[in-house]
């Protein structure tokens, strides 16, 4: 199969989890996957998400927060929700060949010093790489 598989990753704000997940899928699976992210209530890419991804060698600085409506009606091989509220808001996505859900903690909701916040963002970043990339590989049989 020469066509790239299309993946959409959804969360609420499209600021942290889905942005980092998009970055990891592009970084780790890029050749065979076209990946996008969106939010049910998009805000802006969180600067700490971009910072911790850059530390790990995955640049997401050019990514932007996008509304889910930008992708309505488009075909996707896989749509993944990464937070429970996005799963509730979008229980089914027209055009998705497959859907999956894996909940991750919201690093933007963590309160603490900047170093504590960075530590929390790094934990979520690493969980996303470990669990989300594996989920995409498994669901798409890559």
Nutshell version of this structure?
The chain has helices at 17-29, 47-55, 84-89, 114-140; strands at 5-11, 33-39, 78-81, 99-101.
Spatial separation of the terminal alpha carbons: 11 Å
Secondary-structure element string: EHEHEHEH
CATH architecture: 3-Layer(aba) Sandwich
Question: The CATH topology is what?
Answer: Rossmann fold
CATH homologous superfamily placement? Response regulator
What's the story with the biggest beta sheet? 4 strands, parallel
Count of discrete structural domains: 1
Q: Which structural class should the secondary elements be placed in?
A: alpha/beta
For the largest beta sheet, what order do the strands appear in spatially?
2-1-3-4
The percentage of residues in β strands lies in: 5-15%
Number of helices: 4
Low-confidence stretches: none
Mean of the pLDDT scores?
A: 92
Task: Provide the gyration radius in Å.
Answer: 14 Å
Helix content: 25-40%
What would CATH call the class? Answer: Alpha Beta
Q: Any idea what the shape is?
A: globular
Number of strands: 4
């Amino acid at each position: 199969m020469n066509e790239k598989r299309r993946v959409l990753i959804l969360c609420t704000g499209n600021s942290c989890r889905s942005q980092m997940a998009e970055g990891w899928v592009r970084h780790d699976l890029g050749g065979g996957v076209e990946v996008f992210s969106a939010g049910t209530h998009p805000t802006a890419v969180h600067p700490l998400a971009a910072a911790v991804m850059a530390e790990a060698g995955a640049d997401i600085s050019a990514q932007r927060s996008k509304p889910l409506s930008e992708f309505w009606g488009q075909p996707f091989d896989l749509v993944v929700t990464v937070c429970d509220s996005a799963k509730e808001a979008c229980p089914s996505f027209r055009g998705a060949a497959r859907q999956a859900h894996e909940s991750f903690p919201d690093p933007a909701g963590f309160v603490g010093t900047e170093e504590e916040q960075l530590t929390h963002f790094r934990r979520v970043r690493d969980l996303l790489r470990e669990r989300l990339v594996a989920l995409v590989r498994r669901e798409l049989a890559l």
